[in-house]
Amino acid sequence: MAVNPPKLTPPLSVPGFRVGTASCGVKSPELKGKRQDVTLIVSDVPCHAAGVFTQNRFRAACVKLAEATLSASATDIRAIVANAGNANAGTGEMERVWSQQLVDAGARAAGVESAKVLSASTGVIGTPFPIERIEAGMHEAAESLDADNWTAAAHAIRTTDTFAKWGSRTVTIDGHTYTLTGIAKGSGMIHPNMATMLAFVATDAPVAAHDLQPMLRRVADRSFNCISVDGDTSTNDTLCLLSSGIGLGHAPLTDSMAFEQALTELCIELAQLIVRDGEGVSKFVTIDVTGAATEEDARTVGHAIATSPLVKTAFAGSDANWGRILSAIGNSGVSIDTDGISLKADGIVMLERGNLHPDYRDEEGMAVFQREEFTLTVDLGMGEASATVWTGDLTHEYITINAEYRT
Amino acid sequence: MAVNPPKLTPPLSVPGFRVGTASCGVKSPELKGKRQDVTLIVSDVPCHAAGVFTQNRFRAACVKLAEATLSASATDIRAIVANAGNANAGTGEMERVWSQQLVDAGARAAGVESAKVLSASTGVIGTPFPIERIEAGMHEAAESLDADNWTAAAHAIRTTDTFAKWGSRTVTIDGHTYTLTGIAKGSGMIHPNMATMLAFVATDAPVAAHDLQPMLRRVADRSFNCISVDGDTSTNDTLCLLSSGIGLGHAPLTDSMAFEQALTELCIELAQLIVRDGEGVSKFVTIDVTGAATEEDARTVGHAIATSPLVKTAFAGSDANWGRILSAIGNSGVSIDTDGISLKADGIVMLERGNLHPDYRDEEGMAVFQREEFTLTVDLGMGEASATVWTGDLTHEYITINAEYRT
Questions:
Q1: Of B159, B196, B264, B307, catalytic
Q2: Which has the closest alpha carbon to B125: A292, A329, A336?
Q3: Is A196 marked active-site?
Q4: What angle do CA B310, A36, A60 make, to 5 degrees?
Q5: Which residues lie across from A201 on neighbouring strands?
Q6: How far is B402 from chain A (nearest CA, A)?
C-alpha cells in the first residue's frame, strides 16, 4: 500500500563504479534463487568516503565496524557490501565475528583489502547470521559486477519494501559533469537519525576528504533525518557516500556547494520514497514549519507533529483535527507563544495567530485531509528559521503488518 | 475493550467534603439528562491544596487559571469545579473568559469566593464552550451535594472512558485515621506529564501547606507520570489534591511519609485504571526497569519501551519480539552498556547480559506475551535505581477509535 510511488527513471551509471548482486537465501535457504539479497558495490579507484549511522545505542556490529573502518581510512575505500534478510544484530558475541566475516567475504570477492570495505546488514534481529551462504553469494555477486547494475542493487537491499528505490543527479562544475547515483531501502521503524534504512550514494565527483563527512551530516539532517513513519529508529541504519574523483585524481571541487545541493536533492528524493513506502502508509504529508527561532526548533516541531499517534490517526481518518496538531506542537518541548501560531492545510488558513480563522469551514479542511498528498504549514511566529518533515499516516495496515508478522 | 477492569469497592466519603453532579448537555444540548457532565467538589473548611498540570505548551485556560489560583492561595481552597464534554481549549480569546465564568459559576453554586475555586475541563478541543448550559448545571449540581456522591462524580468527569475510576485509602497516624478518596478520568492521549486525564483527591488529613505541592509532584512522578497509552499529552491534564485537616485545624501530620505512601498507592491504583481503560488497549503490561544509574534513567527507558509503536504492536500480536524491546531501549537516549542488559518476561529469562539465554525458547516468550497481563523486567546493569511504567498495546481498535471518530 505505497502512496503514489513514482515511476522511476533508470539510474545513471557512475564512472568507475560497478555493482553486483546475488540470491543466496539469507533469510532462509528456501529463498535462494527467489530474491536477490546480497549486494557488492566496487570502485575501480580508492574513494573518499563518509557515513552517517544510527543513533540507537544498540548499534549492530556492522555499524561499529563501518565506523571504525571510516575513522581509520576515509580516503581509501574501495567497496561496500550489504545483505538483506538478517540484521546480524542482537546475537551477542558472534555479531562481531560474523560482521568481520561479511567484510572479509566482500573484500575477497572484490579483490581488495578488508580494511577498505564498508558493510551494512538489514533484516531480522536476533537470528544467527548465515555467513556460509552469504560468503557463497558474495562470489556470485562479484561475477555479476557491472556499471549498469544499480537497479538490481536497489532491489537486493530491500526487506519489507514494496518497491525498489533509486535516484540519480548530475551536476556540472567547471565544465565537468559529475554523476551521483543512490539507492535506498526502508519502510518500517523509520524516524530521524536513520531508521531501519540503508542508503548508498556513489559519485565520480572529487569531493575533498575533509569536506565529505560534515557535508553528509548536513545533507542527512535535511533529508533522511526529516522523515518519520513510526518514530522508531533501528540498530542498523546506515547512509554511506563514496566519492571516487575518477579520472581527476582528488583535486577538490571548486564549487562544493553545487555538489552539496545536488546531493541534498538526491537524498530528499530517496527519503521521500521511503515515506511513500512506509508500512501501512496511505497518505504522504509534508509538514512545513516556518517562523521558528532556529532550524532545530522547526525540525523538532515538525517531528512532534509527524510522530503523534493522534495526529497520524487523524490523517488516516481524513479528519482535519487541528486541535491534535496544536497539542502535538505544544508537546514538542520547543518554546513557543501559543497565541502566535498559524496553521494552513494546502493553502486553506485554519488558524491565524492562535485563533481559528473566521472564514475557515471544517468542510474545507476535511477536503484537504482527504487527499492522498497534502501539505501542512505551521508558522510559529517566533523567528525566521524553517524546516520540512515528510511523514505518513497511522493505519490499520500498520498494525496488521507489525502485530501479525514478525519483522 | 478495557483490560480486566476490577470491580471497584465503593469509595469512602471524606469528612468535610461533599460532592454534586448534574447533566446539562455540555457536549450537545441533546445529551442533557442523559449523562452527568458537571461536577462540584466542596469542602466545608478551607483546604491546603496542590496541583500538577500538563506540560503541554498549549495549556488550556482552566489550567492557567487553576495554577494562578493555587499560587495566590494554596492554603485556602474551598471547591473544585469540573466539566466533561468540552475542553474549553483552542478557542482563542474567549477561552480565558469562559474559564473564569466556569469558576464563578462554581463559586456561586458552592457559596464561596471565586478565588477559592479550582476548575478543570475535559473533552473536545476547539468548540465554543457552552457556558450558559454549564452555569445552569452548576446550580443543579450544588443541589445534589452529598458526602456519598463520589461515584457519581467519577462518572461525571468521564469522556471516552468506558468505566468510572475511583479509589480510597485510609491511613492511621498518631491514633487518627484519615481518609483519602480520589477519582480520575482518561483513556486516550495518555502519557507522562499528565495526559488528557483529570484526577482529584480529597483528604481530611492535615498536610502542612509547604509539604503538599512537592509531595504531589513526587507522587505524580511515581503514578500518573508512569503510564502511557499513546505517548500524547493533552492541553488540560490536571491532578488536584485537597487536604482539609477538618476537625484538627492544620496541625501538621507527625508522619507525612505514611500519608505520602497511602497517597502514592491510591494514585498508582487510579493511574493503572486509566491504562486498563486505554483506547483500544487489550493488554496491560508492567515494565519494571532495574539496575539503572538513576531513577530518571529507569523511567526514561521504561517510557521508551512503553511508547515504541513497534513494541506496542508486538504486544498486540503476542509476539515476544525482544529485538524490538532492545531497539527501544537503545533509542531512549539513556547511556547504557548494551552488553549489560538482561530481560525477563514474567520470570522467563530471555536475555542475560546482552546475550540470548541459552535455555530460552521462543515458545516460552510467546506464551507470556499471549497473557492479558504480564511484566517485562529490564535490568540495565548500570546501577541500583529502578522505576515501573504501566502501558498497554497498540491495536486496530486504537486506530478505529482515533481515525474514525473526532475526539
A1: B196
A2: A329
A3: yes
A4: 45
A5: A182, A241
A6: 6
Which pLDDT does position B125 carry in this prediction? Answer: 77
Chain-centroid distance of CA B100 in Å reads 24
List of chain A residues whose C-beta atoms are within 8 Å of the C-beta of residue B332: 57
What's the start-to-end Cα distance of chain B, in Å? 17
Per-residue model confidence (pLDDT) at position B195: 42
* Cβ pair A331:B188 closer than 8 A: no
- Report domain extents, chain A: 17-276, 284-391
Closest alpha carbon to A54 in A135, A160, A125: A125
A168 bridge partner residues: A181
Between A188, A235, A316, which is nearest B330 by CB?
A235
User: Which of A200, A166, A227 minimizes the C-alpha distance to A388?
Assistant: A227
Q: Which of A196, A203, A286, A290 is catalytic?
A: A196
Question: Model confidence over A277-301: pLDDT tens digits?
Answer: 887 889 999 999 999 999 999 999 9
CA dist., res. B72 & res. A44, Å (int): 75
DSSP string, B362-400: HHHHHHHHTSSEEEEEEE-SS-SEEEEEEE----HHHHH
pTM attached to this predicted model: 0.81
| Model confidence at B194: pLDDT above 70 | no
pLDDT bin (cut points 50, 70, 90) of residue B62 is: very high
Interface size, chain A vs chain B, as Cβ–Cβ contacts under 8 Å: 171
From residue A139, how far is each of A22, A43, A44, A147 by CA, in Å? 8, 16, 17, 17
Short-list A147, A144, A179, CA closest to A36: A144
Interface test with A, best of B1, B53, B55, B58 (most A CBs within 10 A): B58
Q: Is the pLDDT of residue B229 over 70?
A: no
Q: Which fold would CATH assign to domain B17-276?
A: L-amino peptidase D-ALA esterase/amidase (3.60.70)
CA–CA distances in Å: residue B195 to residues A28, A124, B302, B372: 44, 34, 17, 24
For B333, residues 6+ apart whose C-beta sits below 8 A from its C-beta are B300, B304
- Which residues, including other chains, have CB under 8 Å from residue A157's CB and lie 6 or more apart? A39, A82, A84, A122, A183, A184, A185, A198, A200
Give the Cα separation of A319 and A257 in Å (integer).
Answer: 41
Q: How far apart are CA A326 and CA A331, in angstroms?
A: 9
Residues in chain A predicted with pLDDT less than 50, given as ranges, are 189-195, 407
Please state, in angstroms and rounded to a whole number, the distance separating the CA atoms of residues A134 and A255: 41
Tell me if the domain spanning B284-391 has CATH number 3.10.20.340.
Answer: yes
Q: Do B181 and B168 form a contact (C-beta atoms < 8 A)? A: yes
Percent with pLDDT over 70 in chain B: 94
For residue range A40-74, what is the model confidence (pLDDT) as tens digits? Answer: 999 999 999 999 988 888 888 999 999 999 999 89
Largest pairwise CA distance in chain B:
69
Interface with chain A: mutation pick from B402, B404, B405, highest number of A CBs within 10 Å: B402
Alpha-carbon gap: A133 to the closest alpha carbon of chain B (Å): 23
Which pLDDT tens digit goes with each residue over B232-258? 566 788 899 999 988 665 567 888 899
Q: How far is B255 from chain A (nearest CA, A)?
A: 37
**Which residues 6+ apart lie within 8 Å of B63 measured at CB?**
B53, B54, B120, B235, B236, B237, B238
How far is the C-alpha of B72 from the C-alpha of B49, rounded, in Å?
11
Q: What pLDDT, on the 0 to 100 scale, is given for residue B355?
A: 83
